[in-house]
Amino acid sequence: MKTLSSENTSEEIEPPKELYAYHATSSFANDISMPYLSYYAVRLGASFEQIAWIQSLMNLLPNALQYFWGWISDTKSIRTYWIIGGSVFGAISLYLLSTVNEPNEMLLLVVIYSVSLSIINPTWAALQGDWMNPSKRGSTLSKFHVIGGLLGLVGSLIAVYSVYTDGSNSAEPFRPLFIFAAIATFIGGLILIRVPYRDPEKTKDLVLSETAKKEYSNTFQSYVRAQAFYALNMSLIWPLFAMILIEVLEVDNIVLVAFSLVGAVSEMAFQPIMGRLVDRVGPLPVLIMSRIGFAILPFIYAFFPIIEVMILLQIFILGPCFSAFLITSNAMVLDLAPNKERAAYFSYYNTRVGITTFVGALIGGYMAGYLEDFYSDTWKAIFTIFIISGIGRSIGTIPFLSLRIPKKYPGSIYLVDRLMEFRMFKRR
């Protein structure tokens, strides 16, 4: 492991190419496997409730265990060591996922894989922050996501090829995807061996008064609460997508893969735009835009359950909104966290959001199962959950409008002025 000197705290920061390479392999592994986990489970015979448990555990465990690993990353040893160890652990569990024959086996391996993610995620976010110029976070994060998106696109195309050449509507075409993901995850861990150590203190921290520190802390707490409530309502419909596509719309495997592919391409295409926008106006306005977009989606899904409409939504709403979310969620935490506590802040944020998405996905899955029995109609059950999620997301957008980020961006003052004018007008 190489070590950099810490002579100059004002140096221009440029992330080493190995960090981009790691993110590329990680994105490839994720995009070739995780979008199809629920489809794989349904093809193995999973019920609403089993899908809910798979989705919930994938949300809870990688996040709930982060508090410990975030603290370890901030205080013990070098961040890359923990990511390398987590990558080896994750690669083994991904390979084993390719061998499962029924949903309960998948549940056990999801638990094991989730532990590896709990090690990797907060440490990786903090490592990225160590190598970022604070004034260029949006564009740097978008560069990471564009590079990751390109390799993720390759993974998605391999998934299309695997499903197309197999030709069956069974679980078999999905098995090779998890083998590829395991190999990429292992290689990604090895790449990080070459990353030099960078002291988090080399990036200048803001010198804040006690009042300012309290303001930053209060803003962070408010942000976490807003995200947690919104995520609760978002996650209600997560267990339902595989069911609506396979059981209601009865699409074949090639359409399932294409559905995920077009969303990934749209997300990647909007990354540079969102990155530049974040650098200009700050992460909060862009995050609010994504929250509004995600609030609209469930209503359109509910009233237009047509595969062509759903694919168009992947391109024109989900893609730009998800790319905005990917950049802004990290940028918000990096703006509010002290340099030496980044991993702890990320783990705190992810733990709270993970717990709420765990609860939300379970509620959505079990409620859909109950309503399916009550109505004797799968579509009516899904429709009801979509409407509930849309209403909850709409309400959940409101707390974001009251957030104020202490850090100023070149264009942020104008947006804040307009927001304050709107709030004053409402009070009259």
From TrEMBL:
<keyword id="KW-1133">Transmembrane helix</keyword>
<feature type="transmembrane region" description="Helical">
    <location>
        <begin position="381"/>
        <end position="403"/>
    </location>
</feature>
<feature type="transmembrane region" description="Helical">
    <location>
        <begin position="106"/>
        <end position="124"/>
    </location>
</feature>
<protein>
    <recommendedName>
        <fullName>Major facilitator superfamily (MFS) profile domain-containing protein</fullName>
    </recommendedName>
</protein>
<keyword id="KW-0812">Transmembrane</keyword>
<feature type="transmembrane region" description="Helical">
    <location>
        <begin position="228"/>
        <end position="248"/>
    </location>
</feature>
<feature type="transmembrane region" description="Helical">
    <location>
        <begin position="349"/>
        <end position="369"/>
    </location>
</feature>
<feature type="domain" description="Major facilitator superfamily (MFS) profile">
    <location>
        <begin position="177"/>
        <end position="428"/>
    </location>
</feature>
<dbReference type="InterPro" id="IPR052528">
    <property type="entry name" value="Sugar_transport-like"/>
</dbReference>
<dbReference type="InterPro" id="IPR011701">
    <property type="entry name" value="MFS"/>
</dbReference>
<dbReference type="InterPro" id="IPR020846">
    <property type="entry name" value="MFS_dom"/>
</dbReference>
<dbReference type="GO" id="GO:0022857">
    <property type="term" value="F:transmembrane transporter activity"/>
</dbReference>
<feature type="transmembrane region" description="Helical">
    <location>
        <begin position="176"/>
        <end position="195"/>
    </location>
</feature>
<feature type="transmembrane region" description="Helical">
    <location>
        <begin position="144"/>
        <end position="164"/>
    </location>
</feature>
<feature type="transmembrane region" description="Helical">
    <location>
        <begin position="286"/>
        <end position="307"/>
    </location>
</feature>
<dbReference type="Pfam" id="PF07690">
    <property type="entry name" value="MFS_1"/>
</dbReference>
<feature type="transmembrane region" description="Helical">
    <location>
        <begin position="81"/>
        <end position="100"/>
    </location>
</feature>
<keyword id="KW-0472">Membrane</keyword>
<feature type="transmembrane region" description="Helical">
    <location>
        <begin position="313"/>
        <end position="337"/>
    </location>
</feature>
<dbReference type="InterPro" id="IPR036259">
    <property type="entry name" value="MFS_trans_sf"/>
</dbReference>
